[in-house]
Structure formats: C-alpha cells, structure tokens
Fold each of these.
Amino acid sequence: MSNETPPKSALREFLGNLVSAPGRIYRAAFRTGTPTTDRTRSNFIFQNVFLHLHAVRTHRWSLRWSTTMGLGIAALAAFLITLVTGILLMCYYKPSPEDAYNSIKDIHFIVPTGRFIRNIHRWAANIMVITVILHMARVFFTAAYRKPREFNWLIGMGLLVTTLGLSFTGYLLPWDQLAYWAITIGANIAQSPREVTDALNITASFDPGGMQRQLLLGSDVVGEEALIRFNLLHVMVLPLLLSALLAVHFWRIRKDGGLTRPEDADKLLGPPPADTYPVFTEAPQKTYHLAAIVRGRTPAVNQAPENTIPSMPHLFYAELGVFMLTVLVCVGLAMFLNAPLKELANPSVPENPAKAPWYFLGLQELVSFSAFMGGTGIPAIVLIGLGLIPFLDREQRGTGEWFGGPGGWPLVKQAIAVGSAATLLVETIAIRFGWLREWFPHIPQLVITFVNPGTIIASIYAVYSIWLVKRYNSARAGALGLFTCFLCGFLILTAIGTYFRGPNWDFYWSPAQWPKH
Amino acid sequence: MSETSNHAGSRLDPEPIPRRDFLGLSSLGAMCASLIFAGVGIFRLPKAAVLSSPSKKFKVALPESLPAGQGFTPPGRSVALFRDEEGVYAISLVCTHLGCIVKSAPEGFECPCHGSRFAADGAVAKGPAPRALPWLQVSGAGVEYLVDEDATVPPGTKVKA
Amino acid sequence: MNKNKHLLLWSSLGTLALLAGAAVQENIFREWRQTQKALATESGPLDVHLRQVVAPKMQAADRCVSCHVGMAAGEQGISGGPLAAPHKPVGHDPAEFGCTVCHAGQGRATDKADAHGDVPFWPDPMIPARYAYAGCGTCHAYVGIPTESQLTGGQAIFERYDCLACHRLDGRGGTLRPGGAGGMEGPDLSAAGLAGYDRRWYEKHLKKREESSDGPWRISFGKIEEPDRTALETFLATRTGAAKLVEAKALFHTLGCQGCHKISGVGGDEGPDMSRVGLKDPGQLNFAHVPGKPTLANWLSAHTREPGKIVPDSKMPVFGLNDAEIDLLTYYMLSLRRGDVSESLWPKDRLRVERFKEREFAADGATLYATLCSGCHGPNGEGRRFPETYPFPAIANPDFLAAATDQFIQDTIKMGRPGRRMPAWGENEGGLRDEEIARIVGHLRRIGGVPEPKRPIAERRWVKADAAAGGKLYAAYCAGCHGAKGEGLEAPALNNKSLLAAADDAYLVETIGRGRRGTTMQSFGEASTVHPALSPAEIESLVAYLRSWEEKKP
C-alpha cells in the first residue's frame, strides 16, 4: 500500500510508456543497435536465433567464390522457394484422383499468379536437384569430406536422396499422363527385386519387392491411395525430414570448424583487401569458457584470430546475393517456360515414350536394360560407394584444394575421357547390336540381370579406379577417378535418355524423326 | 547413487556408470521393448487388410467374329482375350518389366515404355522384360467367360470354346 | 568484397523487373482482359472480370463466357463485335448446361488456344462449328431414324401437303395463322421427335377443317392418304432440332455401316465398336497420311475415304463415297461421343435406347435392311465384292428368292454362318428380334419381287441318293468355286453347319438346278459350254453328298 505515488503520475507514466512503446518494441526485438562495431556486429549475430547458425567471424577462404561457388546456399535458397510456393499451391491443390487434375487446371487458369507460382515451384525444384548434385561434386573435388567432416558427408547424401524423393513424389500430384506413368514405373522399380526372387523362384516366400511397392502405393494399382501417400510424403514427411537433416548439416558445419581450407590458406590469401571491415583491433584478454570445449578451436590469449572478417556483413552479403540470384533464375525460367501438364491420367494407355523427370532419365536408361540392377542395384552400389569415400580416403594431401590429392586435374581429365568413352562405347553396342537376349534367346534371366550394359559400365569404372589406386598408390586417386567416371556416366546416360530416346524407348537422333503419332 | 558420490574422482573424470545398474538397464530395456512393439504395430498400418481396388475377376462377352490371333480387350482391363480353333485364352497386357500396358503389334506385343517385345504367346523376344506375359485363368464357355487376373496358368492353356 | 553487394543488387533488381513484367502480363495483357475491354454495355464500358458458367450436374465450370461475354448468364445489351452476341436460341440454356457439354473443348481454360483445345495434351478439342450439332450426341441418341431416301421422301411429302404454311420447321414456314390474325399459330415442329405430338393429330385436323367454312383450315388442309401419313410420322419422329445430324445419321443407316460396327451394343462386330468414336483423342491417332490439320474430323474423313491408308492393317473396304457423303459420315461419327453423363440426366431418347433397347434406326424392313445388311449385300440386295474379300451373296436375286423359303432366310439371318463373315444376328445381345428379321425378309421379297415359293413336298429332307456319285460330280463341277471340301473359295462355303441345318433339300436342289442368274453360279439343270446338263437324279446325288458334311446326329 504505497500512498506516495498519486494516481495522476501513474496515468502520466502510463501515457509516457505508451508513447515510447514503439521504440521499446523495436529495441526489444533488435537489442544490439546498429551493427557498426565489432561488438555490435557479433551481438547482432548471436543474439538472433536464425543468424546464430553462422559463426560471428568467417574465414576469408570460405568467402572466396571458388571455394563453394555458392552451391550450398543456392540449394537452400531453392528449397526455401519451393517451400513458400509449395504452401501457396497447397491452398488450391486437392489430392484426389477426381479433383487433382482439375485443381491444377484451376491453378493455371483462374488463380491469379497461380501458373507463375507453379512454374517457379517446378523450376526451383529442378534447380534444387542440380545444385545439390553440383554441391556434392564440389565437396568431393575439394576433398572436403575428410575428417572431421565424414558425418556431414553422410548427412549430405541423406539430403540428396531426400531431394530426389521430393522431386519424384511431387511428380505424381497433377495426376496427368506424365505423372501416372512415371509413378507406375517408379513403383515397379520398387518392386524390381522380384526380378531376382522370381529367377530364384522364392518370390512366394520372400518378396521384398512386392512389399516395397505395396508400401508405396497402398494398393496393387496406382490410384487414390497412392496419390494420398505421395501427397503425404511430398508435403509433409520429406520436407520435415529435409529440414531436420538441414539443421544437422548446418550445425555440423560449425562443429567441424567452418568450411575446409588448405593448410596454407592464409599464405595463399595474402593480406585482406582494403574494403573489408577491420579485424579485431584488440586481441581477446581472456579465454572463452564455452569455446574451450569446442574441439581444437580455442582462441589463444593475446592472439587475434587471423584472416577472419566479421560475418556481419560480409558473409550475409554473399549469402543474400546467392539467394537472390537463385530467385532470379527461378523467376526468369518460370516467366518463359511453363511447367508441363499433360492429359488426364489414363490407366489403359501409357505415354509413349513415358519419360520420368530428366534427372531420373539416366536411371531410366539403366532400367531399360534391367529393372533390378538399373533401378535398385546400381543406385544402391553408388550410394554405398559414395558413403564409404570419407572412410576409405583418410589421406591428408590436397584437402580444400580443387581436384586436390595425388593425380590432380590431369587425373580427372583422364577419368573424364575414360568414363565417357566407356559409357558411350557400351551404349553404342547396346543400341546398335542389342544385348544378350537378342543374341541368345534362351539365356536365363539372372545372367541378363547381372550382365547388362549398366553393370558392365559400372564394372569398367571400378576396374579403372582400382588401377588408379595402384598407379598413384592412393585411395584418393581411385576415388577421384571413380567419382568423375560416375558423374560422366550420369550426364551421358541422362542426355541419351532425354534427347535420344523416343517412342518404345527406341534410339532416335532427334525427336523430329519420331514416328508421327 | 551413494556409491558414486562417495568416490573422490576428478570433476572431469567421473566414475564410469556401474556395469550392473539393474534398475537403469531394465527401465531402458522396457522402453525399447514397448517402442519396438509399437513399431511393429505401426508397421502393419500401411497395408490394408483388404485392398480397395476393384475385383480382379471379371466376366466378358467375346465378340462373335473374333479372328484367330486378334486380341479382344474388355474396356478398362489390361487383358487380351484370344480365340482360335483350340479354344479361348487370355494374356495379361501388363509388361513384366515395369508395369506399362503393352500394345499388340504385328508379331506379338510391344511395350512403349522401355521397348520390350513379346511374341504372340507372351514369351519375351527382346528388351528388359524379365518374364513372359502371364496367361490368365479363363473359365466358362460359349459367349461369356470369366477371367481371373490374379490366377496365372501355364502358357498354352486354352478353354474349349 | 563489393562484388557480393553487386550480386545482391543486380539479382534483386532483375527479380523485381521480372515480377513487374509478370504483373503487367497478368493484369493487362491476358487475352480475356483485352477482349472484354473492347466490349461495352449500354451503360458504359464492360466490367472486366473472369466470368464462368458453373453447372455442377454436368461437372462443368466453363470460362468460355469470359471471352464470349454475350453468352454469359445475365449479360444483356453488350455490343462490340461477334463475342458480344448472345447464344442463338437452343433447347438447352447455356447458363444451365455450360458450354463444353455440347461444344467440347477445355472449359476451365481462359486462353483461346487452350480453351478451344487446340493444344497438345487436351484430348477433347472443340467440335468444329460446321459440325456443331454433333455435340448433341454427348447425351442424345435419336431413335427411329430411317434411311436417307425415306427422310427426303418424308420431307417432300411434308412440303407437298404444305404443312409449312402453318407449322414452323427448322426455321422455315409458319406464316399462316390458322386461328386468324391474333389467333393460335401452328406449333413449331422442329423438335417434334423429342417433344412428341398428339397421335390423333390427323383426326383433329380433319375435324377442324370440317368445322370451318373458309380460312386457313379450309384452304390449306386436305385429306392425307395412309402411306403418306406414315411417311409423315416417320419424318416427324426425326425432327429433333438437329436436322443436319439426323441427315448424317440417316446416311449412316443407308450405307449399312452398322452391319460391321456396333453402336450402343447394336450392330455387327466385324469392325470396331463405334459408340465412342467421337471421343477419340487426336493425340493418340496417326496423322502421317491425313491431309490438313491433325483434327479428329480430318482423321475420320481421311479414314472413311481410304481406311487402309490411315490404319495400315484395316480390314475396312474402300466404299468410294463422294465428299458430301464423307462429310456427313464424319458429322455423324463426331456425334458418337456418348460420354459418362450421369444416368439421371439422360434425355428420354437415350433412356429409350439404353434401357428399353429401342432402335436408333426406324423399324421398317427397308431401314433395317439398309442399316444392317446393305453394307455387304448391297443397297438392293445385288451382292457386293470388295478387293481382298470373297463376294457377298446377292440375296435379292430372284433365283435365290424363288428357291429359298422365308424360314430358310430367317434361320440364316438368325444363325449366321459361323466362321464366315455373316454374323448370327439372332443370338447376339445386339442382334435382331424375330419380328425384325421377318420384316427384313419381307423387304427382300419386295425388292426382289418374288413371293415365297410353295413347297410341293412337305418333308424337308426327302433326297435319298448316292452320295458317292455326288462326290464325283462335286469334284468335277463345284469344287473349283466352292472348294474341294466345300470350304468356300470364290463362292460361299457349302460345308457350313448352319447352312446345312437351315437349308431344306428343295432349296439345294432348286439352287443347283436353276443357278443364280447374274452371278457366277450357273444353272446346272441346263447344259453350258463347260458342263453338261445334270439330271434331277444327279442333282439329288449332289445334295446327298453335301448332306454328308453335316454333323451326324446321334
């Protein structure tokens, strides 16, 4: 019971508070004030839950264009774009076979900006796939997967698979011919282990293929259940999974001490350019307790962190720049190229040719030799191989350098030549002369499953890379060769599937030669 | 609990967890068991006990004048029915490779998706298809027949017309 | 470090520019906006917004009226070009039925090319304006359509009796008011076939005439003879408001296409079922040899003209039709688009066809014959042959009709010739009923001009002769055309089960003896340059030989 404060002054105080409220709200949100000094810049970052993902200071090596080419950020940007546009599309999309197609038509024709948003979604998804693959290639070629970053490499592979999964599940949703037959093929690829169990005559008791397909489709035909499942995966399960993996991925980058850089990065960089904001003017006067338990990154007393610059604003300009560049590319493509929408799904007449999205056409080319090896076997071997790389290559030489390690760029050039030549040669034989079945009509299926152009190409790569390991006496050299070969194979097979396959999956030099239909 | 606190170890190097913490182990074990049980239960969910797709058995009336070697496909089904001197038979039109619907071609069937070709009796002639097109069970006589898409019969099984 | 700032600046400005471009495109340059801006109402410029007709029953959400604004519900007095014109008066209000139900096309689209379906991946493009009434076929199945000649004959009679004086028909006539100025006018008969009319119209008309002393009733109406009245009624039944489509359908019936093609379950099955031929997806058709644009109409015309050229293994013969006929057939085929319209919405005619199995062709013998038989046996029963087929028998041949009993012809129609191209019309679901078969036989007798032969011997099987002797004769004189085992080469198969079952001995004896004048079957009762005259006993032995092919009854 305080009687010293008269009600009049409480009212005045109330009014005063009201007047100053906007300013207080602003300061409550932006506690640090204008980030002009080292301290406020640092505060700006670690007082903000989103920005605190970044280190307060960034090494100048990490900011070089040639280090990352912005690919990781571009992939993230593409994901964010698909996230936003995807939520917008969900306002109108109806996941049922009767309505799905019409709802896409409505998005096209009567939803203001609907077609534009759908196009952006489509292109951002494509760009996400491209950038994720390129990002992985960058990490591989700069040997950035090495200790302590092995785990993050695995997470990255999880992200790659999830990204492809998102793309594939999104493909079914319009319920047009393209969608329906791509999903039919996809679901049957999931069933392809039957090719082996059938040949061994054990399908009746052991049928992993049938179970996978059933799990995916929820029925024995591509229908309502499949649509609902794919929708669930596409809008809910996979984005959540991707976000979780992304969080770990980013967190690991910081835990692993930022981006990889060569041992002699500081020497290579030289003095900072004039237009950077100044580095710490004063060396720290005490050790940081929290920082002390971060492995190997204890700032020493009386020693300034060399060659780092404040993340605010240098890193943020770089990130925002890449982000807007990605937006620009997506919007630009979306302006001029419409996302496809074919006829309403017709379960009795397949598309001819029925082509999956372009990044799966390399796989489809393999599948056209053997469903099991092309659709399950070889991808599984590739994924396992990729995952093992950081554990097999435990060397130090060349970390952080493009094409670092024994052999270097000349080896990569040679691998490009070998990989392309092997792929083209085997493809040419298969296209020109057919394969085992045409030569020996009664050959057992198991032989074709394991001896087909896809497995032959993969074996050539493997033999070549083993030879490289011996030649350079280095696992890194073998990995460089193998990865380069696979990249070449992926590109060539994708190109063949995209441009040179026509009706009935026959070879044509150009779509102009396709039979008129 | 009291055991560990009695030990005068370093703050940074505490006594390792006792090897036989019965209570702890059994509680963790119980948790794992219940989660595994729940997982097994949930694993049953994605497969309905009865599929909602329409019945695989259907009746079909063959056209009176169906030339031998020319297939008749009832609307909405992926089956071709044939009639020749020896009788009536049905061949599935679902490609054994990746499930596209094959088209009849002069010398048999061809699949538009990956170029598999089949002979007129369904045997694989070319391409990636691992198995022949299955022959389906047909029963009945005269004009109307019952086809069961789930039941396969050995190639060459024909029902007397 | 300024490089990144530049990147951010220029990327953002570029994005901004693109978005501004998209906004301009979206809000100014859309086709329908431009269209609507060019139109005006009586009270000023037209309010620019997307318009549509939603017909939930027809599952239609048709935005066609965003450009064809004059046809939008509730829009009146719009001026500014052809798009401002209202729909011409039709039986169905577009505001209730939508547009695509009749005209096809892509109702959800808002750009012209998309909406008209002239884009890849839209399987049901608009029905061309010149075939507009083909759209009626989505729901309707007009019943009782006669042949072309009956149709034009009926029309001629309608005009001869000057019915057009008082009645309107397809936009003509109806100038005279029988009730006098301001009095009652004659009903419009354009849709009499659908709406129905008073069955006792003739008696009522006659009574009116007798009651009045002068005026229109006295001047314009007179006695109508019974056959003319029948023809008039047949004609009136075809007035459905879609005159051109009915004309096309009549031609289809005249040419006998249904002898090979089923429509709604009725017809032969030599050729593909045509019930949904108008719904074919142009994207699935081969246009390699089709002149002109890749439209369904062009494909159908080209295919009707030369089937084998468009579909390589087509068995359909070339009929040598003229352009007008092909165009009419195309018209009718485009109308064969009975979609999956909910049964509760079926019009009466469709219900009559699909539920009560009424015929879409008229019930008289002439129409039945033309619709189902004339395609192979010729319009006048003269027989026909097409390249690569054996000839179809001349079934109105006087020698045939003189030898065959009605029972024989009826049995033949009913049972067909198994294994040959003649289907069993009596057995199939889409086949003929007994009274229809009888009417066809009657029609044959009429065009052949030969009454049913009187059989002197009551027994059907009386021939008792030496089959072995007949066999030698057969090998010598018959096997050349009928095949060594009677399997049929140039001439019909004689070992056919149902032929031998249906034919009595008298028929066989008579046919061999008389031959068929005008065909390659000679009279074997008389001598010719290639064979001597066979004696009755020899002919009987031949018949006995033919009978030996019959399956022995246990």
Amino acid sequence: MSSTHPQISASHVAHGSHEAKTAARRRDEANAAEPEKTVEEPIIIVKELSREFRVRLDGESFSDRVRRFFRPEYRTVRALDSVSFSIRPGESVGYIGLNGAGKSTTIKLLCGVLVPSSGSVTVMGLEPYRHRTANAKRIGLMMGQRTQLLWDLPVKESFRLLGKIYDLSPEIYRANLDRLVEALDIGSLMETPARMLSLGQKTRCDLALTFLHDPAVVYLDEPTIGLDVLARERIRDFIRGEKERGVTIFLASHDLDDLEIVTERVLLIHEGKILFDGTQMALHDVVGGPLSTLEDTVKQFYRGARLG
Amino acid sequence: MKYLTYTRAEFLRGMRYRANYWATLTSSLIMTLIQWYLWTAVYRHTDSIAGVGFSSMLSYSLMGRVASGFLAEPANLRIGPRVRQGTIVHDLVKPTDLHYQLLFQSLGSALFRLVSTGLPLLLVLLAAGRIRFPGAGATVAFVLSLFMGYITVFSTSFLSGVLTFYTKSGVGIDHLYTLVEFFSGMYVPLQFFPGWLRAVAERLPFKAIHYIPMAIWSGMTGPGEVAPAILSQVAWTALMVLLCRAVWFGAVRHLTVQGG
Amino acid sequence: MNNGMHSGIDNRPAWDMGSETSKRRPLLGGILNTVWRYSRLYFWYLRANWLSLMAYPAEFVVTNIAGLVYSLGSVAAVWVLFTQVKAIGDWNYPQVLLIYGLSIFSRSLFHLFWVDLMNVSAMVRLGDIDRYLVRPLNPLFQVVAGYLDNDDYGELIAAVILVWTSLGMLGQRTVANLLWIAVSVVSGMLIFASIHIVGNAMSFMTIESRGFTSLAWTMDEFTRYPADIYGKGLRTLITWVIPVAFASFYPAQLIFRNGQLIRLALITPFMAALTFLLAYRFWTKAIDRYQGVGN
C-alpha cells in the first residue's frame, strides 16, 4: 500500500459486503449489508443490543451449599439492556462506565467475541460474529491488561509473527512497522525480551501491535491502565494521531483525562443502559453548573442518575 | 484449634465445583476398573505371586484406588513462586505458621476427596462384594496408618516445595513424582520388587505413604506384624515432620535475614 | 470482479490485500491454499516457540532429564511385574512393552505439540480466547500452536527406547514396521488430541473444567495395557466410542502378525482422522456456546 492510510470510503464498505458474501456462503446473502453507502454512513451500527448471562448461585450457609451442590440454581444477569448507537467513520468515541456497567461486554459484542442475546451489531456492513475472520482483518483490539507480546522473546519477534498472522506482504509490513516504531518511539526496544520491558514500554509495543495491520476500527479497553503521567500523555498523542489518519477509535477507559483529550463524543453506560450519548460539551450542558473537567461532570452525572 | 478453620474452608471450596465432581468420580471409577482388570489378567495363569494371592492383591489395589484421592500429591506447596511473586509476605505476616497452615489446608481438600470420591467408591465396591473389611483391629490400624500416610505425602511435597525456594528453576519433586509413587508401592506392592530394589524401597520413607496402610488392609501384613509396621511408620512420619520443620525454619531465616 | 467499485489496488488497506484472489478458487484449490497458509504459519509459531526455549537452556536440560526419569518410573512397574510373571492376559513381556511403548510414544507426541489445550480454561478466564477470536485465524490452531512444552523430550526418548527394545526382542526391527510405527504414533497422537480437545472444550461451557481435563487423562490410562484384558463392554467403549485402543493396542497387532485383529489394526489412521473430525466439531460447537449462539 503506497498511500498512508485506509480512508474508509464507499469502495471499502462495498468491498466489505462482497467479502462477507463469499466468506459465509452458507448464510443468507440478503442479510449482508447493501452497497451504495456514502461516507457519512455509520461504520458501526448498534441496534437495541442486549446480552444476558446465566450465573450460578453460590450458597451462603453450609446447607445452602450442600443443596445447591446437588441442585444448582441460576440467575439471569442482563449485562447490556437494549443499547443503541452508531459511529461514523473516523469518529472517536469514549466509552464511560463504572466497573461492571457492561463496557467489556459491549466491546466483546462489537468484536464478535460474543453473540447478542437480542438486537444487532453491524461493523462495516458485517455482523462481526457471523463473519469473524473477515471482521477480524479490519479491526484492532487492545486489552490494556493483557499483552500480545511473546513473553520470552525480543519484541521484534512478536511483530514478525503478527505480520504473518495478518498475512501482510513484506512491503506493507515494513512500511507499517516503520511508521509505528517512529510514532511510538519503540525502535530501541525491538531487541529486548518482552519480560524485561517496563509497563509503559510494553503498552507502547502492544499499541503498535494493535495497529500493525492497518485496522479501520480500533477498540481500546483501558489502554493507559497503571501508567505514569508521561507514558499516558505519549499514548494519548499517538491515539490522537491515528484518529487524524482517519481510524475510527472506540476507547473505553476509567481515566477520564484520556477521553477528555482524545475523544469529542462520549457514551455513558450505567447498569447495561446507555444514559448519555453526545459531545462532552453537551454532557456539561445536561449536568449544568460551572464548566469543569470531564471527571467532575461525569461524577455529577452519576449522582444525578442514581437519584433519578 | 485455629488451623482447623483452614481445613473447613478448603473442604467447602471443594463443594463449589459440581461438574468437576462428577468428572472426578468417573475418572476414579475408570482407574478402579483398570486396576481390577489388570490384576485379573495378571493372575490368570498363576495363583500366587511372591506369596501374594489374588484376593489379597485385589484388596490391596482396590483399597489403594479408594484412598488415592486422599493420598494424592497436594497442590500449591511451592514456596519458590510465592517468594518470587512476593505473596510470601502475606503468608509471613499472618499470626499462623505457614507449614502448619498448608498442612491443614491440604488436609481439607484431601478429606473432601476422600469423602466425595473415595467413600462412594468404597460403597460401590462393598456392595459389589469386591472388598471386605479385614476385622476391627486391622481396620483401626489401617485408618491410623492412612493418616500417617497422608502426613508423609504432604511432607514429601512440602519439602520439594521449599526446595523450589533454593533452586531457581521450577523443577521440583513433581517432575520425579512417579518415582515416589513407584517406591511407595502404588503400582506394585514391595514384595514384587527384586531383592536389591526391595532393600532400596525399605530404606526410603515413601513406603509409609501407600504400602504400609494397604498391606495392613489387605492382610499382606499378618496380625503379628501390624504393631511393628505401625511403629516404624510412626518413626518415619515423625522424621519427615521434623525434617520439614528444620528446612522451613531455615527458609524463613534465609528470607527474613537475607531478604529472600 | 467487485461491483466495479475499486479504483485500484494501490490504496487498499492491508487487510484487503489478496483476499479476493484466493476466494474464487475451486474447492480443492481453496483447501490446499488454506493448508499451505497454516503450514507456513505453524512454522513461524514453531520458530517463536523454539526461540523461547532457547531463553532457558539449563532448565530445558534439567526438566527433560527429569521427564525421562518420570516416564521410566511407571515403566519400572511393568518391568517389576514381569520379574514375577510370564504374561499379562495372553501377552508376553516384549508384547506388553511394545504396547506400553506405543502408548507413551503417542502420548508424548500429543503432549509435545498439543499441551496448551490444558490451559484452555485459564485462557477463557483471562481473556486470551477473546484475543484469539479477534484474529483472522482458527482459534484451535492458535491455542495449539501458541505454546510448546519443553519437558516432553525425555518422555519421547523413553518411548523410542522402549519401542526399539521391544521390536528387537520380538525380532521385528524392519523398515516396514518402523514406518507403521510412525503412522500409528501419529494416529495415536490425534486420538489423544481429540479426547483432550473434547475434555478441555468443556471450559467453554463451565468454569470448572479441571475434572474433565483429568478425565481425559484417565482415558489415556486404557492404552498402557493390552485392551483385551478389559471386559466386553469396556472394550467396545474404548474401540468404538472413545477409541483409545487405536492409540496402542490395535496398531501393535500388525507387528504381532495377529490374524484376528489385523483388520482393526489397519483402520487405525482412519479411526484417528474420524475421531479428530468429530472432536473438532464438538470444539466449534463449544465455542459457539461460549459466544452465546442461540441464547
């Protein structure tokens, strides 16, 4: 690829639907999204998405445990409750929620790891779960707490293997690697075994791995967790740069500074429901009061949500 | 006694895993069947091997399966990883002794395995008439011997676990555990060993894990020999416990004085 | 070829490259293409695994010596038994030794190349499976290729010694027999792999899969001794339902020139392939369950 970046344009969306058809011939072709999209068509469409889990109950008392050992009892938990939103190509969206609000579940549904209990997810015209491989080639996922690096090997080996996994041609591989090494300043780390890297260095390498195959959409789950201020800033700068290249960014983070700096739009999820969807400014307006940091605004918002 | 709370907690933990339980019960039934058919095939052409008759051998082997969960190698006794990950600090600040705590914890899961898989297996074998109680005296001696067998198996694993604290690599006794099992008489009773190998086995503590209790149960150890067998087991068990104490104190001193 | 909407190949992103050239091929070509792609990738995974082993050379040597001793510990039991008796059932010492040797040969190959199946439950717990599901590769391939064990070479050496010795005792060290041994241990490996795939796929449905993992190991125990010592029901079970008897007992019959069982001996590779296909189906169904299909 000679040009710098995957501009998400009509041709790609259309091509996506073609690939979908061939990749899953068995499925109903009519289900695949239709071509003739314009640039402003959403790249991610989530409609009334719900996801439930069944959880086995653990006993409190000894007799409870004995009883449930022989006859288990279950409870259904609704992790996501009829969530709808859509994201345009090149947009960057921050995803905010307390622990257990349904953030990870949403990301898993968007990536095709989980199948919706009801409702639908469409990413670039494909249902991620049905077209797992086709979808996988165009998305990137970074889980801040799990590294993709090969533990005992020099960092460059992880890149090499991932290049093979995504079937990148030598030229593309070289070009992308060079760009990412430069942008994240990881050139000096390439010969170091991953286990000897600091957390900040590891995170930078993981980010580079996530973007190695030129994904059009990238999901970032807590990318700056546990990092110091300087390392965080570096990562935000990089993500902003990728956004400017036109990559669609979906960023879930507890660090609201991340979101404040990187994204304009925020989605607020609480107990499986989207409570707010709009720009940061709009969120300030809803909460009211003096203009403050995103963190204060969100805190205010949750207090309100709990009362309401 | 405060250590018994650990035993109780571990016992309760076992009950949370239901699917696990049925799978474990099935595998222990299968292992019992394999033993049963193996010894039947071995005794097809002979009545007695090294003075051991078929019914005695079967009793030795099947009771061995019943007790196998109880006498299984306890898990999580490696001290080395605890030191390297730093979690040993939590263990050392508690007002308990880690050696005893682990002993009673492991006893909890061993008892759970005994009650949950050993007991049903025993009932099945009793109902099928494949196993018989050897008489009150021998049964009492067997139970006593079984508990000492447990302490020996725990001590063996604990010693190797503490050794991982000194050796940097993760290699422990568990990589050589078939040898422990072999010399404990778990695969074949010690009478079957050629003379020189028997002499080796008699000088190792491992026979106290399996051979002594099962030989008492199956009558391989005659009524007059039970008391000396138990006494020698007491001696071996005491020796193992003392060895554990010594090595453990050494490790703690090493840890607190030199900082690991 | 593509709605005519492509302006040119140049500005397509990396994930788009070469995708449709491979899609339109006939079925056989497609299969060969996939096999070629995965073989190449397996090479790269192997390379990474080997490089990781090289990071700890001393540990590699020590654990493998320990592994050799480990397998000899259980072989010692068979040897001790035969110092006392002449046969187990209808099988003499070299025959039992060959069956035992084939059993640990297949097992060590399985262990060497498939060991990370044991960690599926941890992968589910820690999210590695999710990672594998967002890569354009088969998840089972990623599980299996992702990690090679470093302490099974000792067991493999023990197995080779055992098979070689017993073939000598039987006077059967021919090239044809050695080729058959190669076929049967690969089949045996696939059969073990199938059982462990099913056992560990349970991790996708229940968080407590340790019992199933150990149940899978227990099935392996059947292969250590001649399969005809078991009762009729059990024998049918390990021949036709969970066909572990094809991992050691039946293939050995070809070397014993046992006329009655030679037909069963000859179908060993087919049984292995069939078992593997069924196990793989179970695995994909289990992953579907994990993802929540039809919930």
